[in-house]
Design goal:
145 residues; alpha+beta; Pnp Oxidase, Chain A; eight-stranded antiparallel β-sheet; 3 helices
């Protein structure tokens, strides 16, 4: 299982964007395209503190996201479906480290560190489904964090 966890972390490290699903307390879903960084299996991203995703996370911290390889062939699909808990980062050192990592991966985001309306969101993973159809068509591993 540790090999699969390591493979998941490596996969996340090579990608730049996820599709994040949030929902309100009354269950209204919303999908967001997010640029992220990861520290191990934990993801971080920056967003406006008044955004719909922040409001949804404050109402309901349960989130899910997916990330995948674009391909023309069904038997070349690799993807992750992750369920987790999203929280606003309040620790200044953790926030500073996440911003530094975001700025390294996405140099155009360097202005975020001075934006007083930006917040850092952390997604702590709970359950991951990792599929790699290259190994075997329909292959899917379930990993709990």
């Amino acid at each position: 299982m540790e090999d699969i966890k390591e493979e998941i972390v490596n996969y996340l490290s090579k990608k730049k964007f996820i599709t994040l699903a949030t929902s309100t307390l009354n269950g209204k879903p919303l999908a967001h395209t997010i640029a992220y960084i990861n520290k191990g299996p934990t993801l971080y991203f920056s967003t406006g503190n008044q955004s719909r995703k922040v409001k949804n996370i404050q109402e309901n911290p349960n989130v899910a996201y997916s990330v995948y390889d674009e391909t023309e062939y069904l038997d070349d699909i690799r993807f992750i479906q992750m369920e987790g808990i999203a929280t606003l980062v309040s620790d200044k050192e953790e926030s500073k480290e996440a911003l530094k990592m975001l700025n390294q991966k996405f140099p155009s985001t360097s202005n975020l560190s001075s934006d007083p309306d930006s917040v850092i969101i952390k997604i702590t993973p709970k359950i991951c489904y990792f599929s790699d159809y290259i190994r075997r068509f329909g292959q899917r591993d379930k990993v709990e964090f």
